C-alpha cells in the first residue's frame, strides 16, 4: 500500500487531492505542525515514511509592502517556507534511504506574478518555487522526483487576491482564457499525474494549472463567445 502526506489540509484543494489519491490506491495522511523540526518529527512518528509528500504552503498574511508590515512577510515565511523545509527534510531523508519517492509543491502563479494585494504570500510562493528546484537537484540523485503544481486562483481565494490598489474584483472570465477559476479537481488531476509512472522522468518542473492565467492582454476578452471572432 502506497502512502501520501498532505501537509496542509486547510488548503482549498486538499480535500479533492486526498480523494483522488485514495482512488489511486494511496493511504492518505493530512496535517501536522511543520514550522519546526520538532513538529515535523512528531508528524513523522504518526505517519512513518511516505511514498508521496504534498507540500501545500498556503498561509497568507495580507499587507502591502508600502505599509511596512515586515511581520506579515516573516509570518508567511515561517508558515510556508520553514514548514516546507522541515517537511521536505523529515520525509525526504527516508526517501533517500529507500531510493524512491516523490515530493510535490502545491504553489501559485504568484510565485512569478505579483498580486498587488498580498505581498507576503507572493514572496513566500517565490521562495517555495526555488526550494522545489533546489530539492529536485539534490534529491534527484537519490531517485526522488520533486515538482510543483502551480494552481490558479480558486473561488475560495477570492478575498485573498482582492486588490485595493486595482480597485476591482478578480475577473476570471476576462483574465483567464478558459473563463473560470481553478478547482480542487484540477489540482488533484495534476498531482495524480506527477505521481504516476507517466511522469517518471519529470523532475524539477512546474505544471501550471491556471487556465492560461498569464496570457490575458490588459482586460480585453479575445472572443465574443459566439464563434471564432477575435476582439
CATH homologous superfamily annotation: NAD(P)-binding Rossmann-like Domain
Which architecture per CATH? 3-Layer(aba) Sandwich
The third-level CATH topology is: Rossmann fold
Taking the sheet with the most strands, its summary is: 6 strands, parallel
Give the SSE string: EHEHEHEHEHHE
**Globular, elongated, flat, extended or rod-shaped: what is the shape?**
globular
| CATH class category | Alpha Beta
Structure classification = alpha/beta
Proportion of helical residues: 25-40%
Side by side, the strands of the main sheet go 2-1-3-4-5-6
Strand content: 5-15%
Q: How many separate domains? A: 1
**Mean pLDDT score:** 85
| CA gyration radius, whole angstroms | 18 Å
Helical segment tally? 6
For the record, give the distance between the C-alpha atoms at the N and C termini, rounded to a whole number: 52 Å
Amino acid at each position: 500500500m502506497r502512502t501520501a502526506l498532505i501537509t496542509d489540509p486547510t488548503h482549498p484543494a486538499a480535500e479533492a487531492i486526498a480523494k483522488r489519491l485514495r482512488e489511486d490506491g494511496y493511504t492518505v495522511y493530512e496535517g501536522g505542525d511543520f514550522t519546526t523540526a520538532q513538529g515535523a518529527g512528531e508528524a513523522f512518528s504518526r505517519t512513518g515514511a511516505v511514498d508521496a509528500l504534498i507540500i501545500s504552503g498556503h498561509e497568507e498574511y495580507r499587507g502591502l509592502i508600502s505599509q511596512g508590515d515586515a511581520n506579515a512577510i516573516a509570518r508567511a515565511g515561517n508558515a510556508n517556507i520553514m514548514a516546507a523545509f522541515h517537511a521536505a527534510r523529515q520525509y525526504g531523508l527516508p526517501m533517500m534511504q529507500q531510493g524512491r519517492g516523490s515530493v510535490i509543491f502545491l504553489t501559485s502563479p504568484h510565485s512569478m506574478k505579483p498580486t498587488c494585494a498580498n505581498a507576503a504570500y507572493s514572496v513566500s510562493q517565490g521562495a517555495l518555487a526555488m526550494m522545489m528546484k533546489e530539492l529536485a537537484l539534490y534529491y534527484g540523485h537519490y531517485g526522488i522526483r520533486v515538482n510543483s503544481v502551480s494552481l490558479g486562483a480558486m473561488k475560495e481565494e477570492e478575498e485573498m487576491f482582492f486588490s485595493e490598489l486595482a480597485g476591482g474584483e478578480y475577473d476570471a472570465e476576462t483574465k483567464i482564457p478558459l473563463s473560470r477559476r481553478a478547482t480542487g479537481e484540477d489540482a488533484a488531476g495534476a498531482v495524480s499525474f506527477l505521481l504516476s509512472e507517466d511522469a517518471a522522468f519529470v523532475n524539477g518542473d512546474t505544471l501550471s494549472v491556471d487556465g492560461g492565467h498569464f496570457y490575458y492582454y490588459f482586460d480585453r476578452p479575445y472572443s465574443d463567445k459566439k464563434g471564432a471572432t477575435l476582439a
